[in-house]
Amino acid sequence: MSAVTLEQRPAPKRRRGKAGPWGVARIVYLVLLGIFTVLPMAWMLLTSVKTQFAALQYPPEWIPSEPTLEQYTRLLSPANEVGQEFLHYLLNSIMVSTATTILGVAIAVPAAYAFSRFRFPGRKLLFYAVLVRNMFPAVVFLMPLFIMMKWMGLVNTAWSLILTYLTFGLPLSIWLLKGFYDNIPPQLEQAARIDGATRFQAFLFVVMPLSTPGIIATAIYSFVLAWNEYVYALTFINDKSKLTLPVGLERFFTEYATNWPGLMAASFIMSVPVVVLFLVLQKYFVRALTEGAVKS
Q1: Among 49, 195, 258, 263, which residue is least crowded by beta carbons within 10 Å?
Q2: Alpha-carbon distance 243 to 158, whole Å?
Q3: What is the mean pLDDT of residues 81-109?
């Protein structure tokens, strides 16, 4: 019999050991976390396809026996007053959130790049001063910002919300992008400048493509922040035609009754853009968080 070399020997099969106590605990934790995350969305969706009588039934009917899409048809149809109001609020939210996202990214990108690449007096003090704002709850700035917006004549306009959301979103956006730029080797820009590129061209054609995940994560953060904000939209906007969707949901509450199926249908529609954003761009978001948090 010829000798069998080590390379020809089959690799030994690994035996999967039984999950220990920590393995079982992790599985239980993940299951509970999944239930905690999915259950509210499932209940919201199930309630939205119920009739008003079924939604108020006690004990509650978990699975509707006669599901209906009446509330969705009513909300998304411009032929009735409720649909016109809802679509108008939806358009206002899209406009404010999109403008906040575009302006936030346009300001955060050069600011984070400056903090990452340049050394100037007071750099660290200024950088941490930008982050100090996040130490305080948003309601602390409600009255000062309202007085400022009134002085500038921006109360009851979309610009009051856009500028306010920028003050909340920019600190974390700058911090996130700075950590991302710190992990991009400066040698790449130096090589581009040796080849004849200016600093701006090196930033635009070398750094920007490499920082795409960080920019996308910043855009998601800015959009979600503006999309879900309620307190400032309620305070700064009094004109019914300029309300955003979170405030517009109050229209389903009346003095004597609440249209729970309609409210749940509107809430579900409102959550769709955010969920779609995360599903489509989640890999960029996770990559930006990990690369921006780990030093190379």
Answers
A1: 195
A2: 9
A3: 90
